[in-house]
Amino acid sequence: MSKNKLPLYAIVELLMRLAGIDPQIGNYKNHSERGDNVLVKTTNGTIQLSRALVLSQFHKPEDIEKRDLESLASRFRRKLSRANR
Q1: How far is Cα 10 from Cα 80, in angstroms, rounded to an integer?
Q2: Which residue, among 3, 5, 7, has the nearest Cα to 58 in the 3D structure?
Q3: Which pLDDT score is estimated for 82?
Q4: Are 64 and 53 in contact (CB under 8 A)?
Q5: What's the pLDDT tens digit per position in 22-53?
Q6: Which residues face 55 on adjacent strands?
Q7: Which CA distances in Å does 68 have to 2, 9, 52, 58, 79?
């Protein structure tokens, strides 16, 4: 892993954990990194992760508590369907 790139599978693993809390989150499509934030697009919307959280998932996933995942899942933004636009 290069110094500045985040491991993709850590992002996907986080999404899988979050989908266990909210199945509407969907599957990974892509992501973009901006400073300390990672904007992740899924099949159903977007969610913003911190770089620190992704690195925690990579190095020590057991340190991420369920309440932190629940809080994060509540910030998921569903994309608007074409019918609602």
Answers
A1: 27
A2: 7
A3: 65
A4: yes
A5: 999 999 999 999 999 999 999 999 999 999 99
A6: none
A7: 27, 19, 13, 16, 23
Do the beta carbons of residue 43 and residue 29 sit within 8 Å? yes
Contact 16, 28 (CB under 8 A): no
Segment holding 44, helix H or strand E: none
Does residue 80 have a pLDDT over 90? no
Structure tokens belonging to residue 14 = 């986080």
Task: Pull the structure tokens for residue 17.
Answer: 């954990």
The size of the chain, in residues, is: 85
- Predicted TM-score (pTM) of the model is 0.86
Show the tokens assigned to 59.
Answer: 């190095």
Place of tokens 């693993």: 13
Amino acid in position 42: T
